[in-house]
Amino acid sequence: MDGQGATADPQLQHFIEIESQKQRFQQLVHQMTEVCWEKCMDKPGPKLDSRTEMCFVNCVERFIDTSQFILNRLEQTQRSRGSLSETMSE
């Protein structure tokens, strides 16, 4: 093999990355919907009352805040591990 087979087509890589992001987003929306529905929906009806609506708004905001916090912590952890492994390999 000449080594070129190991690298995929950049357009294909880009497509796969976008599709992966879409899938992660859909999973996140599904998870958020499930969590907030269980927390806020007492009895389904034809309309949301203001209390239930506010519960959903707050739930979604907290879910987004928490998800963002976790992503930031994971990035920090990966960066610190990367710099630690670079230091150890020197």
Automatic annotation (TrEMBL):
Family annotation (InterPro entries): Tim10-like, Tim10-like_dom_sf
The membrane topology term of the UniProt record is: Peripheral membrane protein
The signal peptide, as residue positions, is: none
Recorded GO cellular component terms are: mitochondrial inner membrane
**Does Mitochondrion count among this protein's keywords?**
yes
The family annotation for this protein states: Belongs to the small Tim family.
Q: What is this protein called?
A: Mitochondrial import inner membrane translocase subunit
Task: Supply the source organism for this entry.
Answer: Seriola lalandi dorsalis
